[in-house]
Amino acid sequence: MDKITVLMAVYNPKQEWFEKQLKSINEQTYLNVELVICDDCSTELSFNEIVEIVKNSVFKIPYSIQKNCHNMGSTKTFEKLTHENSGDYFAYCDQDDIWEKEKLLKEWEALQQNDGIMVCTNANIIHDDEDIIVRHNYMSVPAKLKRSIKLGTVWKDLLTKNYFWGCTMLVKAETAKKSLPFADYMYHDHYLALFAATQGQIVFLDEAHVKYRLHGNNQTGFMKNIFCKQDYIENRVCMLKLRYTELLDREFDDEKKDSIKNLITWTIFREKYAYGQLSLCVKLLKYFKYNKVTTLFELLTMPIPDFLWIRFIKILKRIKTLKAE
Fold first, then answer.
1. How far apart are alpha carbons 170 and 120 in whole angstroms?
2. Residue 158 near residue 197 (C-beta atoms within 8 A)
């Protein structure tokens, strides 16, 4: 039976959530599993305390624990774990979710049945300290994306948006290692999904095998860390330009590099438009296909004064929060 290595990056975990995640890994029905944990220099729990929590929560499967020499962030910690470990498949794990017992078994079976190199599943949402599901099948992907997955063209969609969460992933270890180093301007799960989509078949299992805990410290979220127009330009436009410039240096074929070059041009036009070159609106419309919602949002809102823009974003954030509750 193939060996699945669960890679977990840990930083200041809340003990109760951490224990629940560990116990859910300990209870997996797939029989050949090991767990490797790396503490990214937590400051609120000592390394010895983390070791003790793991010792008391994991006893059915082999595990090992290490600690970074300095704080590296989650993406670089996952990169290190990917580089240093072995196995047939890697499963990437957060510190505060809950895995259903058959998560790894169902994912492994889906890869065997579909000759895939990466599988991602659906997820249910739970809030903070409550383990009650508040949103079912939250990760359900649109029909268009499912068609792209079947056609092998989902890499085009992943260039502009991440549709898969790392906590739902199971990927062939050789594919993950081949992707190294992870991109500097992408979260590890987004880059892994993009890279895997250029190498072989991605499988989406439309069943919820993870309870994803939604809380204020999640790394991603709607307009996270965006408080004014300048924040948006720097973190949503300029950052993308850096991302695509970096991806252009990766070993992709000409078709993919041409798409990346077009996206660089798209970000350049977006940046100039945001800074007041409104005459570029027609050129922006030519790139509408890459991200219709984002392009339309910027065409309509970038010309308005900053103080009105800030109020508008606050309203959108509130609406988004209410929908998630």
1. 7
2. yes
